[in-house]
Structure formats: C-alpha cells, structure tokens
Amino acid sequence: MPQPGRTAATAEEPVTPSAWRVRIRMHDHPGTLARIAIRLADLECNILGLSVLPVPGGVLDEIVLRPATGLPRRHLVDAIRAEGCECTAIIDADVHELVDPSASTLLAARRAVDDPARLAEVLKDVLAADVVTLVPAVEANPARTESGHRAVFALADGSALVARRQWAPFVQLELTRAEALVTLLAAAARNIAGPVVLDRPDGAAIVLRKGVPGDADAVSELHRRCSMATLFRRYHTGVRSVPRRWLHRLLVPPRGTSVLAVFGREVIGLAQLIPVTSGGAEISLLVEDDWQQQGIGTALLARLAVLAEAQGITELSADCLAGDDVLPRTAARAGLRTERGVEDSAKLRLFLPA
C-alpha cells in the first residue's frame, strides 16, 4: 500500500498537489535533460528545482515541479517514457522545503547538533525516508537492503538507525550524504567533551575538562584538602583519604566519564557521569571547601547535563541523604528539576529540560 504522501508513479489522485518530486532515470547523454524539460513544458509543468544523482549506467534526475491543474500522473510518466527515460517515482512535495541539497544537509546537521535526540527525525528529512528507526546495532541487520529501499547507519553508542523508503530506492550519493551527516554529528558529540573555560567575574581561570589517569595525584590532593563533612556528603561514609586503587575508577569510571574543575595545577572539583540505562545515568559531585558556594558545583552539574544530553540521556540520579539540600539547590541553579525517590528517599532524581 502506498504511504500517505508517497504515491506510486502510476497512481492518480483527484486533487493535484501544489508540487511533485519526480525522479527520472536516464542515460547521461547531451540533450536528454533538455528534451525532458520540453516535454514538461508541453504538459504546462513548471520546474522549481533540479538535483542530479549519479547512478550506475547513467544519472537519476530529481525534479521538483508544479504540475498543471488536473494533470494525471500517468500522462507525465508516458511523456518521460517517450524520451527513452524511466520515471521511477512521483511523490508530493512541499515547495517551502525547496533548498539546495548541500544547504539543506547543513541545516539538518545544525538541528541535530542542537538536539541530538532528534537525529532520527533529521536523518528522515535528509533522506526523504518514510521512517527512520533507532535500534540496537545487533538488531540492525545491515546486509538486508530490501533492493535498496533500506539502509543502516551505525552509531558510536552501539545502536543504529534503520532508514526505509518505499517510494524509491536509496542511491549512493544520498547514502554518502547521510553517512557524512552521522559522522559529523559523532565528531561534534566527541567535541562536546572538550575543555570549557568558565566565565567568572573575578577573572579566575577555571577550566572544566575530562579527567584522565594522569590526574590521580591532583585528585588525591583534592580529597586531602576537603573536610570530613564534604567527603561524607559525597561518599556517605567517614573516609579521610582515598585509597590509590579508587583514583583510577574516579577518573575513568566504567562506561562513564569524569569532569574536573581545574584552577592552575589544582583540581578543585570532580564530577562523574555513569550511564546505567538507555535513558538514565548516575552522577556524583565533589567540590573543595574553599571553592564551595562559588558556582563550581553548578558549572560541573550543568556540564554533566550537556554530556548526558549528547548521549540521549534524559534522567540523572544521585545518592543524596535525606535532609541534605545542597545537591537539590545546585541542580536548581543548573536548570534541572529534581524529586526524591518514592521507595528510596536517599536517591535524588534529576530531569534534564525537555
């Protein structure tokens, strides 16, 4: 069954849409496109846009046109066939979306960078696909192409996007463009974890950056400078120093990442983000006493929220003792909504803005 707005080339509709997207397979010979243009003019069709997609044995011209009122699609198909070409698809088009393909892809990339959770929607628009579905990579089955009507794009987080289109097979140029988009967004996501310099009124140069094993000594000194009360709020136990074996897990947590607040050579704050479910992650914060109430914890938590959003995470959780309102107040300043766990009041849930 044809999808709404995705009509087979031989179908007719009682109401002519404002524009059609027509795909014509032809040999790449001089004058072929000119003859097609003359045929379209004879049918009183107005060409609004043209893209040329190289395919094996010729080219696939995609023409956006405004058809004459009441023109049956089969008349257009017959005219194209009369010039020795093949009309592979005719679908409804929106003239408001007439943008140069390169510019359209760049605009789509900007949308996905601004909101990584919309990647499937953006890829659907770029490919003019019927549907794009996010699935675990093990379920993607990239070998199943369905005669070119199905394509798979692997993502860095172990998932994949599966695109399907009934109205026409995907051509290589379209797939290359979509692959470049996915690669660009992966690079942008990696760059999100890059260093950030805090803009402070006192001019102090504080940098938020990813923690690495080489920071072990500085993180050990951070713990040594913290009070027992600060350490208890973080670990909920009476630690005074951190065993050496803990330091690596603090800086490179399994499946997660750490963010340090650095002033000069000193680490003054440490935060962790550890994904635990497809849409959730655990977090922790530690800020040196002398730097508390100066926005360091808020900046670290806001940074964790940015990294979480880039991974498609929508909800964070943290261990927070009942009656301790430091983390809830920090979350509020970072723009996150919080609520206490129903079954476990020591578990604080933090929700990223929608």
From TrEMBL:
InterPro entries, per the entry: ACT-like_dom_sf (IPR045865), ACT_dom (IPR002912), Acyl_CoA_acyltransferase (IPR016181), GNAT_dom (IPR000182)
Gene3D superfamilies, A to Z: 3.40.630.30
N-acetyltransferase domain residues: 206-354
Pfam families, per the entry: Acetyltransf_1
One GO MF term: acyltransferase activity, transferring groups other than amino-acyl groups
Domain ACT: 21-101
Name used for this protein in its record: GCN5-related N-acetyltransferase
Organism encoding this protein: Amycolatopsis vancoresmycina DSM 44592
